[in-house]
Write the structure tokens for this entry.
Amino acid sequence: MVDATEEAPEVKEVDQQIAELERQVKDVRSRKSVTLLTNLETDYRQTLAREQALRKAFEQQRGETLSQNEAAINYRIIQQEIDTNKTLLDSLLQRSKENDVIMASKPNNISIVDYAVTPDGPIGPNRSSTVSMALFLSLGLGVGLALLLEYFDDTLRSSEEVERLLQLPALGVIPSANASARRRLMGASGALQKRNGHSDSPELLMNVDGHSPLAEAYRHLRTSVLLSTAGRAPRSLLVTSSLPGEGKTTTAVNTAVSLAQTGASVVIIDADMRRPRLRSIFGLSDRAGLSSILSSDVSEADMLEMVSTDEATGLRVLTSGPIPPNPAELLGSDQMRRLMATLQSQFSHVVVDSPPVNSFTDGVLLSSMVDGVLLVVHGGKSSRHVVRRSRQLLHDVGAKIFGVVLNNVALQSHDYYYYQRYYGARNYKSDGDDDIEPTSHARRNGSHNTLDLN
Ligand SMILES: Nc1ncnc2c1ncn2[C@@H]1O[C@H](COP(=O)(O)OP(=O)(O)OP(=O)(O)O)[C@@H](O)[C@H]1O
Ligand SMILES: [Mg+2]
């Protein structure tokens, strides 16, 4: 029994063998399971790699299929275009054939006579001939236009034209006082005007610059006026024109001032009751004047009472007075004749400013009461026909026209250069008193000196 118990050596050996076997089994089992796991893992990885490769191949296939589809669509479109073009070509070919047939049936007389040869240089345009032609044409046109304008120019521009076309003496040519000359003259006249109390009066231009062509022109006009009646200087003078704005007032004022500068006593009457200006030019007060005298029976003393004195020029001024409704009636009255007689007995010269003769009868009525008439013509502007009509109106009433004053003549005129050359030079001692002394009046001093033209 002992031999059969666990303590028995045989049992112990068998147990050891069993344990050894069990350990071996366990060992084998564990080794097997590791091998299996490793195998399985390897399998798994291989399978995964295959799956990925398959997926990639699938994606590639799908992309290719899509691009093939697109190419197929494009191919179909191009195929359609080719078909259309083929149809078009067929129809064109057919038409060409038809044309050939038509052409073949008609006789053709066109043949090549000569072949074109390429020239060495440009054949046109011919620059020199074109330029010379243009030159001649423009020259011809310019000359033609100038002649045409000259032909249609109905104005009076020079003293020769006045004498030739109006048969009236040209007593003076007054140049146009341009803006800059006016500005200069105005500037120089500041002190004078303050002394005079005159406002800006362009009509008094000659006061301010004794050497200017303008002042010289008025001196020349004065000489002509004084010489216009044989034997003695004219005592009364009417200044008028055909149309408004030709320079009657300007001429009347400057002629009167220049006459006063010879020492003569001069009165200027504003008989232009349509547009009276003398009151504002001489800065006189708004008091009774010509219309007051003519509309009432005033005495000679009262008439003279209404004549104002311009201190600066020594000129006596009879303003128009309140504007009446019937100027022509008043101016044609006996009272006007009486007034003229009175003034002529008291003064050496009576200068009368008036409205235009072509518009109103006032000037025509007055012309018969004076020794003579100065007809002012706007140089280069007044029409010959209009001036001729004025001359006729004045002749019809027996007025004596001393002559024409060409006023506002453009600087380029020959007459202007005449003045520039002979009177304008500064070193030439211009002397208004060298002109004819019209009266035996002594040269007055005082206020007159302040306005000496020299
Ligand atoms: N020689 C001249 N140069 C430049 N301007 C001038 C000249 N003569 C006159 N004028 C200008 O022409 C305008 C008209 O002149 P003025 O008033 O003397 O004419 P008028 O004939 O008296 O006009 P109206 O018929 O209105 O009385 C004025 O502004 C004057 O200053
Ligand atoms: Mg006037």
